[in-house]
Write a structure and sequence with these properties.
Blueprint lengths: L9 E5 L2 H4 L34 H9 L14 H15 L3 E5 L2 H4 L10 H16 L3 E7 L5 H7 L6 H16 L6 E5 L9 H5 L11 H26 L4 E7 L2 E4 L4 H23 L5 H8 L10 H7 L4 E5 L3 E4 L8 E2 L6 E2 L15 H15 L2 E6 L17 H20 L3 E7 L19 E3 L11 E3 L1 H11 L6
Parallel strand pairs: 1-2, 1-12, 2-3, 3-4, 4-5, 5-7, 6-8, 7-11, 11-12
Antiparallel strand pairs: 9-10, 13-14
GO molecular function, one term: beta-glucosidase activity
Organism: Lucifera butyrica
Pfam family, one: Glyco_hydro_1
């Protein structure tokens, strides 16, 4: 019985290009959908609505050159400071760093026939630096970084043409970096398309009638399934020893009570995650979706060969983010809602919450890992897990973030229990090993990192990097292969 993490277990951190790189018009990069997302004011956090703009609102944002209002345009300047940051990751002992390739750096509009060489050269240098410092790159092809042009002109992923544009992008970077990258992920949190049609699929509010939105979201999801399968096929052909996986928002859904209808509600909510892994890991649409499609008048438009393509190109592993669990209940049950990572539910009275109200549930991670491994018997990879919190810099410059240490400690302990349970786990990359721009609110004050970045919500600061207490703690965790937490 495996009682320890495997010797080749990948320890590290995870970032996304749109949240760290900045340099949004440098070296030929085109506009990405995240470049038009404004920072959320503190008083709007609790009533947070994910961006779902109209074409007019997008045009207004593009014309607005007050970049301070759009933090993902400047990130934390990783584009120019990656060597400094990778040196800190090496000091932590990372054996892996999850990054993404900004699609709009490689194909600025998304529909070009030839890639932007300057964009490719940046990732050449980035991956070489990681290799020189003993880290495996874990590369996400699409992490909310769709070229804005594809959204404005084609309607995002609702348009079948985008499948071929993505396949061209995926083929270009997989071939380019075949000797440097062995771990690939197709779409970040692909199930978030049901909650965030713009950020996840590039759909604008005036492109789809409200009554047709759900059908459009599932059609866009189908196109992403096909695109993912094409990327899997390319990776397996070009990199025989490579591994390519899918990625979902890892959500465990508890029933609000033992009332049978609450249990049924939890099952139905759980399927909002499992549908996406079922298609990519099993290769076909699950039977339970037929009723949902029929009751909502949804007919998925497929091209000949789509089903065979999905079946022939299964992912090698399933990766997931995990931040919280949620509670499901029958519709007539009233109760306080709990905010969270895209998916929300009733507040769980047995759990504490983060500064942003996300409920903390380490045991839920063990439960979810077992559920997924039981279902698919495929290797799992936790590629996001972390605590967004307010950090205080003391007068002496120290940052005492014991709350972050405790959060991560509890989740690593449950990961180990899952390994003892028999789950095959590839690795663990903590979300935001360095402070970055928040996905949901575009704030800096929601900090995740072991490394503090001197930058405020309005973009002011020196950008100087400094180590928090958690830096030294995680260093020991990695050095002991998870035995010392």
């Amino acid at each position: 019985m495996m009682r320890k993490f495997p010797k080749n277990f990948l320890w590290g951190g995870a970032v996304a290009a749109n949240q760290v790189e900045g340099a949004f018009e440098v070296d030929g990069k085109g506009w990405a959908i995240t470049d038009i997302v404004k920072r959320v004011a503190p008083e709007e956090r609790k009533q947070l609505k994910l961006p779902f703009p109209t074409s007019r609102e997008v045009a207004t944002a593009v014309a607005d050159r007050n970049d301070k209002l759009y933090p993902k345009r400047y990130g934390i300047d990783f584009y120019h400071r990656y060597k400094e940051d990778i040196a800190l990751f090496k000091e932590l002992g990372f054996t892996a760093l999850r990054v993404s390739i900004a699609w709009s750096r490689i194909f600025p509009r998304g529909d070009e026939l030839e890639p932007n060489e300057a964009g490719l050269l940046f990732y050449d240098k980035l991956f070489a630096e990681l290799s020189q410092n003993g880290m495996q790159p874990v590369v996400t092809l699409s992490h909310y970084e769709m070229p804005l042009h594809l959204s404005q002109v084609y309607g995002g992923w609702t348009n079948r043409k985008v499948v071929d544009f993505f396949a061209r992008f995926a083929g270009t970077v997989i071939r380019r970096y075949q000797d440097k990258v062995k771990y690939w992920i197709t779409f970040n949190e692909i199930n978030s398309i049901l909650m965030s049609p713009f950020i996840s699929a590039g759909v604008l509010r005036d492109q789809v009638a409200e009554k047709d939105l759900l059908a459009a979201q599932f059609q866009a999801a189908h196109h992403q399934f096909v695109a993912s399968a094409k990327a899997v096929e390319i990776c397996h052909r070009v990199i025989p020893d490579g591994k390519i996986g899918c990625m979902v928002v890892g959500m465990i859904n508890y029933p609000n009570s033992c009332h049978p209808e609450d249990v049924l509600a939890a099952l139905q909510d759980q399927r909002k995650t499992l549908f996406f892994t079922d298609v990519q890991a099993r290769g076909h649409y699950p039977a339970y979706m037929a009723r949902l499609f029929a009751e909502n008048g949804i007919v998925i438009e497929k091209e000949p060969g789509d089903d065979a393509l999905l079946q022939a190109n299964l992912v090698d592993f399933i990766s997931l983010s995990y931040y919280m669990s949620t509670v499901s209940a029958r519709p007539e049950t009233a109760g306080e809602q709990s905010p969270g990572n895209l998916f929300t539910g009733l507040k769980n009275p047995y759990l504490n919450a983060s500064d942003w109200g996300w409920q903390i549930d380490p045991t839920g991670l063990r439960t979810l890992l077992n559920m997924l491994y039981d279902r698919y018997e495929k290797a799992l990879f936790i590629v996001e897990n972390g605590l967004g919190a307010f950090d205080t810099v003391e007068k002496d410059g120290n940052i005492h973030d014991n709350y972050r240490i405790e959060y991560l400690k509890q989740h690593i302990q449950q990961m180990k229990q899952a390994v003892i349970d028999g789950v095959e786990l590839i690795g663990y990359t903590v979300w935001g090993p360095i402070d970055l721009i928040s996905f949901s609110t575009s704030e800096m004050s929601k900090r995740y990192g072991f490394i503090y970045v001197d930058q405020d919500d309005d973009g002011s600061g020196t950008l100087q990097r400094s180590r928090k207490d958690s830096f030294y703690w995680y260093q020991k965790v990695i050095a002991s292969n998870g035995e010392t937490v």
